[in-house]
Amino acid sequence: MSPMFLGFAALLVFFGGLRLLELVVSQRNWRRHQEERRERLREPLFVWMVLLHGSLFVVLPLEFFLGQPAFGGPLSMAAGVVLVVALVLRLWTLTTMGRSWNVRVVYGEDYPIVSNGPFRFIRHPNYLVVILELLALPLLFHLYLSAVWLTCLNAAVLFFRIRNEEAVLFQNPSWVAEMANKPRFFPRFR
How do residues 72-105 score in pLDDT, each as one tens digit? Predict the structure, then answer.
């Protein structure tokens, strides 16, 4: 096996492990939310999110084995930097949200509004992480079709997911006061 394949496989295992860990943490947090009588938004779109994230582990290996993967040069370097930034932002976001974090949209009258950490700058740092990961991970190995496919599918899923999530969040005056004037993904620099 080539070193490039071993690196590719290790990254897929790493990101797969992260996704599984997130699901475990999310489920644990959801049990706590249930005890506090919080609700979870019914999201038919959630299945599409799961399929999108699962397809990462099918689409990338397919293109890796059927295409012309490569590693190195400015593109791999830039993609690697973006992946590291995304990982740091993910850890910052999840630790900032703590027990409030969930893969589902959870709400309630007394639900705490998180406005520190990366939320000081943008409304949806975890969605930004996903955007960056789904673009950079394929580009690290020059898997262009996967980068386009995953990015386009993610854009469609996030369009509807964020619209549904913010419809709930905008009903909370505390969230509106703290977050409504912040950009969704990219901070404004003045």
Answer: 999 999 999 999 999 999 999 999 998 888 888 8
* Residues β-bridged to residue 39: 107
Q: For residue 25, is pLDDT > 80?
A: yes
Residue for token pair 């620099």: 189
Contact 123, 179 (CB under 8 A): yes
What kind and span of H or E run contains 49? helix 46-66
| Domains of the chain listed by start with CATH number | 3-179 (1.20.120.1630)
Written as one letter, the residue type at 16 is G
* Residue 92, burial from CB neighbour count under 10 angstroms (0-12, 13-18, 19+): middle
Residues 140 and 45 sit within 8 Å (Cβ to Cβ): no
- Residue 131: CB partners within 8 Å, gap ≥ 6? 151, 154, 158, 185
pLDDT of residue 39: 66
Structure token pair of residue 189 = 């620099």
